[in-house]
Amino acid sequence: MNEILDTAALVLILIGALLCLTAAIGLVRFTDVATRLHAATKPQVLGLILICLAIALSLRSWPVVAFLIPIVLIQLATAPLSAHMVGRQAYRNGTVNEKSLLVDELADSQRTPPAAGG
């Protein structure tokens, strides 16, 4: 049973590391903000979760699991929030290619002032 868990941990670390590597390559290779945000958040978070799961399988200790759970939860909470803030600021700066957007929900809020009530 130990060999099976160790092999599973090895595979999870390998997949997690490959996902983190693809996220880093995506940050370097992609040109616009929206695609870089996808590369920075989606594979990176999944890679971290897989690596944390592999660590828990490898060490087989409840204190380690108790330590890894907040790490994963904080990552799940902060990655989408930071991507949202960066994307919104890029939209305000005009660095987002508006022709590539399928739905532009912020365009209406740009035309109507927040205090106008509409």
Count of helical stretches: 4
Looking at the structure, what is the overall shape? elongated
The chain-level structural class is: mainly alpha
The unreliable regions are none
Rounded Rg: 19 Å
Q: How much strand?
A: under 5%
> What is the chain-wise order of helices and strands?
HHHH
Summarize it.
This protein is an all-alpha fold. It has four helices and no strands. α2 (about 35-60) packs antiparallel against α3 (about 60-95).
Question: Would you give an account of this structure?
Answer:
It contains four helices and no strands. The chain has 118 residues and is mostly helical. The mean pLDDT is 87. The N and C termini lie far apart (63 Å). The chain has helices at residues 2-29, 33-59, 62-93, 106-111. Helix 1 runs antiparallel to helix 2 (33-59) and helix 2 packs antiparallel against helix 3. It has one domain. Helix content is 79%, strand content 0%.
